Fold this sequence. Notes:
By secondary structure, the chain is α/β, with parallel strands linked by helices. The protein has twelve helices and 13 strands.
Amino acid sequence: MKNEVFFTALGSMRFAYPQLLWLLLLVAALVAWQIWKRRKMQSTLTLSTTQPMEKAPRTFRYRLRHLPLILRSLTLVFLVLALARPQTSGSRVDAKSYSEGIDIMIALDVSGSMDMMDFKPTRLEACKTIVSEFVDARPNDNIGLVLYAGEAYTLCPPTTDHSYFKELVKSVQREPLQDGTAIGDGLAVSVNHLRNSKSKSKVVILLSDGVNNAGYVDPISADSMAVQFGVKVYTISCGTNGRMAGIRVPGYGIMQVQTELDDALLEKLAAQTGGKHFSAGNEKELRDIYAEIDKLETTRYEQKNVVEWKHEHFVGFLVIALFFFLLEMLSKVVFLRTNP
């Protein structure tokens, strides 16, 4: 286990001054020169036979004759490594640096028909829950909310304070807006919030469960504004066109009402801006639609790996170099001492 830790540390080591490692070539040259010099200094003697010498045993000192050169080489090697300042990392940090966020306005229909119960418990309550889930999945985006029925108003301008945003979503009611479906007004107010945005990606998600029958701004004119300011529009039809669904009417109980949708208009609004139109017949389909939009409009970011080189090993390598130097001196004095 200790060996694994040692080799792992070696693998993660770097040098602050790697250019000094070129000095190791000088060490190699010095060793080569010493070997060449010793061979040149050897004298020659002509003998008729070397048989008596071959039988002579080699002494301990003879076997250690190269030890000083080896120790000196190791001293120089570790001295060079120490000068290059070996370091190991103390920690590794994966830091996400977001380079491009998205500004999103959600235009939510709160007309009377949003109380229909083909979604559980109602269309409006299902939308509130799913919008909150959508916001939770996009923590780095500016998201705002516009409510519209017979008219439109801003409940929350674009914000990254998503806790505050979700609290406002919980409080959404149909009152005090007059009834009706002003799709053009809802879209125009949403686009107005994004017109001065510096974000490269600006999106409106408009949900409607009816036919445009109120308001001051024509939906096509509002859509032209979106095109002008580079806003992409995603539209969602809530409910199934022509299907009957229950709605609670005060004083009358639950009554069956037919759904009327203008899918053609919503599809045209999306297509002109480069967006996409979706149809949701129940809360599961609506949740899947928001998940698909979430994938289509991804937040771009750059991921950077930051390594902190905290542990210096200069002293350790210097101590090893000093150890080999002292060992060389000791070998000359004790093992390889020559008589004067």
